[in-house]
Design a protein that fits this description.
- The chain has 20 helices and twelve strands.
- By secondary structure, it is mostly helical.
- The radius of gyration is 32 Å and the shape is elongated.
- The termini are far apart.
- 36% of the residues are buried.
Length: 490
């Protein structure tokens, strides 16, 4: 059923058992885009049936992460709506009610078989080269009344859905026609022996109750779909349309995992990435606006997005490309906005408030920092030398402070003492004249000065960096480097 024939209601349903993963974020983004494109409703519910592992700070991470990315929601956690709290842990009575209904209708049954008995059935199926759950069906002696009596006596049992013995076929918006043969669908558990619902039951019941029109989720959940469709059918519900999104791989071509580094959205929020860049990059993981363009804004994405355009093949999540795109967005920022960001970054790095004079010096050099920055967290360390005592990067010192370094620093010290207007242009003239007089290359003459004043051989352009420092401070740092070189063992 197309989006224009049924009101679009989509959802994202993270489990609060860990920090929000980029795979969940990509699924949420595609659902949000689809809802916004079609004027629909985007819902965030919390699938917290695993009470032992669900934690409040993971729920907070979900909310903060989606808000940071700019994905607003119309119903759900903290927003409310017509369906209660949108926490599955508050709906256990509803899941029990549906289970009882399915048992009464003969579509589910209590299963008292032991782990050993079930493993024996799976082993038999494997030996006969049949699907593992081939023999996990309703026992011949199953009797609902007798089973209920055993439960009242305190015996423990799971509840299994009783498959109708038919194939399930559906049209996936991404993958096209998908078919699951009846033999491959076992009588799966819908209620555990402790009374808690499985993912199959809780997710399906919620989708029916919340009138979800489209389910867009990862391809790893494709095998769950026939089970959810059978439950929906047994309950007389209306099937949503399904779109199974391609898996996320790392740059090495393997499924995205911890081996590729921290894949939580939180790590990128705290790692100096802009939400606009993350939004843009994540939208490219399985979809594209235009083969010739990789950078586009939120409005363009909404206008063009459709689940039917999502690719089947796995998408590559490359942190290096995301960092590149983040740098593009940083350079797209207005100079005033970047300067404000730089002040905040410098104050956070120094753990103090900048003086007005320091803010002015930082704003003067901010456009040059902006040209070289990929991550917001790089700003503080890059400009720290302007406001605090420096420490020398050992690798940079060893690389630069040798050979003609002492001669270059001494000559620079004398040249800079004579600069009357402490601005980039006069500083450059003085230092280039020094190079000519000393017959030094720019690399041999300028790099020692850079390390002397900033502690590193990577900093904003040299002349502007010198001008951003008070003249006496720049000269003191050069003198300190000269002394250190003189004290070094031969």
């Amino acid at each position: 059923m197309s989006a224009d024939r049924r009101p679009v209601r989509v959802r994202i349903a993270p489990s609060p058992t860990g920090f929000l993963h980029v795979g969940n974020v990509r699924a949420a983004l595609f659902n949000w885009l689809f809802a916004r494109r079609h004027g629909g409703v985007f819902i965030i519910r919390i699938d917290d049936t695993d009470l032992a592992r669900s934690e409040d700070h993971y729920i907070a991470d979900v909310v903060e992460g989606f808000r940071w990315l700019g994905l607003d929601w119309d119903e759900g956690v903290e927003v409310g709506g017509p369906h209660g709290t949108y926490f599955q842990s508050d709906r256990f009575d509803r899941y029990q009610e549906v289970t009882d209904q399915l048992i009464e209708a003969g579509r589910a049954y209590h299963d008292f078989r032991t782990v050993e008995e079930l493993e024996g059935l799976r082993a038999r199926a494997r030996a006969e080269k049949k699907p593992p759950g081939y023999y996990i069906r309703r026992p011949a002696d199953s009797d609902p009344e007798a089973d209920r009596l055993r439960i009242r006596r305190g015996e423990k049992a799971v509840v299994r859905f009783s498959g109708p013995g038919k194939s399930v076929v559906f049209n996936d918006l991404v993958r096209g026609k998908v078919r699951f043969e009846a033999d491959a669908i076992d009588d799966f558990v819908i209620l555990r022996s402790d009374g808690s619902p499985t993912y199959h039951l809780a997710s399906t019941v919620d989708d029916i109750d919340y009138r979800i029109s489209h389910v867009a989720r990862g391809e790893d959940l494709l095998s769950s779909t026939p089970k959810h469709m059978l439950i929906t059918e047994a309950l007389g519900g209306e099937h949503p349309e399904y779109a199974h999104l391609p898996l996320l791989f790392g740059p090495d071509g393997r499924k995205l995992s911890k081996r590729h580094g921290d894949t939580s959205l939180r790590s990128y929020r705290e790692g100096g990435f802009l939400p606009e860049a993350v939004f843009n990059y994540m939208s490219l993981l399985g979809w594209s606006l235009d083969p010739e363009r990789e950078v586009f804004d939120r409005a363009e994405t909404i206008d063009a997005f459709d689940l039917a355009d999502v690719q089947k093949s796995p998408a590559v999540f490359d942190p290096q490309k995301l960092a590149w795109m983040n740098g593009v967005y940083i350079r797209m920022m207005g100079t005033g906005a970047f300067a404000d960001q730089s002040v905040q970054a410098a104050e956070a790095d120094l753990d103090r408030t900048l003086t007005e004079d320091e803010k002015g010096r930082l704003r003067d050099i901010a456009p040059l920092v902006q040209e070289r920055t990929k991550l917001i967290i790089e700003i503080g360390p890059a400009v720290r030398f302007l406001f605090d005592d420096i420490s020398y990067d050992e690798k940079a010192w060893r690389k630069v402070m040798k050979g003609d370094a002492a001669r270059a620093l001494g000559a620079a010290q004398e040249a800079l003492k004579e600069v009357e207007e402490w601005n980039p242009e006069p500083i450059e003239r003085a230092l280039r004249a020094m190079l000519e007089a000393e017959a030094l290359s720019a690399r041999k003459g300028f790099q020692p000065i850079r390390v002397a004043i900033s502690g590193s051989n990577i900093s904003p352009p040299l002349f502007e960096s010198l001008a951003a420092l008070p003249q006496n401070v720049a000269l003191q740092r050069i003198a300190a480097a000269i002394r250190l070189l003189a004290e070094a063992p031969a």
